[in-house]
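Standup notes
- DV: blocked on the single-chain target, sequence here:
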Amino acid sequence: MTVETATQPTARKPELLGQTVVLIGGSAGIGLETARHARAEGADVILTGRNPERLEQAAGELGALDTATFDANDLAAMQAFFEGLAAPVDHVLVTAGGPYYASLAEMDFDEARRALQERPMVMLGVARHAARRVRPGGTLLFMGAAGASPHSAGPGISSALAVAVPALTASLAREIAPVRVNLISAGFVDTPLSASLLGAQLEERREELRETLPIGRVVGPEDIAALAVHIMSNTALTGATYDIDGGQQLLVH
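- DV (later): unblocked, structure below
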C-alpha cells in the first residue's frame, strides 16, 4: 500500500522585499503603475513629480515612504533630492519627459533641441547624482522615447535618439558599475500621456493596434511595470535595452 504525502505549495518570496525604489515621474502613468508593482513585491517607494496635488494623491494610495516635488529637467533640484535622501536606495526608475514627433518640414527647432538634450541630460544627471546613493547591484532604469527603437526608423529626431540613448545606457553601465543601468524602449503604451498626445485620435489608434499587433491587444502601463520590476530584481541585467511593443517592430518594413 502506497501512502501519498501531500506537499504544501512553497510561498513565493516578494521580489523586492526590503528594498527601496525611487520613481522619478511616479505620480501617474508608467511610473505610478511601477510603484504599485514594486509595493506589491515588498518594496518601499519614494515618488517624485512636478504636480504636488497628484503626487500627494499617489503617495496616499501607495503609502509612499516619501515624496519630492521637482522637475526632472532641473538638474540642480535633482542633485539636491538625491543628496537629501535619508538612506541609500536600491533602484531608480525615470519615466519623466515625453517624446517629440515631427517631420523635418514641420519641425519646431526649439522643441527639437529640447528633445535632443532632455532625455540624455536627465540620464546623465541621474547617473551622476544617484550612483552614490544606490546600493551595489541596484539599478538605474530609464524609459526610451515612445515608439522609438534602434532597429527601425522613426519620425524626425526620434530615430536619432533611438540609437543614442541605448549607447548612452551601455556607456553608463560600464562607468558606474556595480550599479546597473538599463533602458526600456516602449512602443505605444495606453497612458494619460498617450491620450494627451493623440487627443481625438486615441481610440482610432487603439483599434488599429488591436487589429495589427501580434499580441492582439494594446500594451498598457502594467506591462511596462512588470518588466521594470523584473529588471530591478534580476541582478544579472545591465547595459541593455529591452524592447516592449507588442510586436510592433515586426510590422515595420
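- Follow-up: Residues 82 and 213 are 40 Å apart (CA to CA).
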